[in-house]
Amino acid sequence: YPRQRAPQTQLSKFNQTMIKAMMGSYIKVLFVRDPFQRLISAYMQSVGSHRHSFSTFVQDVLDRGQHNVKLEAKPLVSLCHPCLIQYDYVMMFGFLRQELGHLIHRAGLPKGIHLPELRDSEVQWTYEWLSEQLFSELSLKQKKQLSHFYREDLSAFQFSHSLLSG
């Protein structure tokens, strides 16, 4: 937003009129990912510093609750507020190759822009396999608690193949 170029200023520091003007001047894109896959990613990042099982990691997330859990494991709805912000595009992890081309065209960026190589199908297959393996380590109680923990994400976005949806 041209009038306020302070890089460290949070949106919440502005009044509602300024927020509305700023948000209206941007193309707003939200990248979403299955909450269980995000949880796996957070676990994989923590494996180097901690030596605990996935089940223990999940229980720690559940015990901390939505407000005290680390950013990587927080439900998306609590981070991106899709009910308050009218996003122009919601892009699903696993379909980035198709969706990015459309977004670049709609945003008016040059047609010859170079995109990184995206191997959505390979990444998706790997996460599906890993998800099934790690999901099988969880107790039925933990599975139900995770579904409840991420209930708003699961209802706000179409994660039709999520293990937490079942």
Automatic annotation (TrEMBL):
Any single Gene Ontology cellular-component annotation = Golgi membrane
Where does this chain mainly localize?
Golgi
Give the transmembrane ranges: none
What Pfam families does this protein map onto?
Sulfotransfer_2 (PF03567)
Compartment annotation: Golgi apparatus membrane
Task: Give this protein's Gene Ontology molecular function annotations.
Answer: sulfotransferase activity
E.C. number(s) listed in UniProt: 2.8.2.-
Keyword annotations of the record = Carbohydrate metabolism, Glycoprotein, Golgi apparatus, Membrane, Signal-anchor, Transferase, Transmembrane, Transmembrane helix
* Keyword Cell membrane in annotation: no
Coiled coil segments of this chain = none
Q: What is this protein called?
A: Carbohydrate sulfotransferase
Species in which this protein is naturally found = Nothoprocta pentlandii
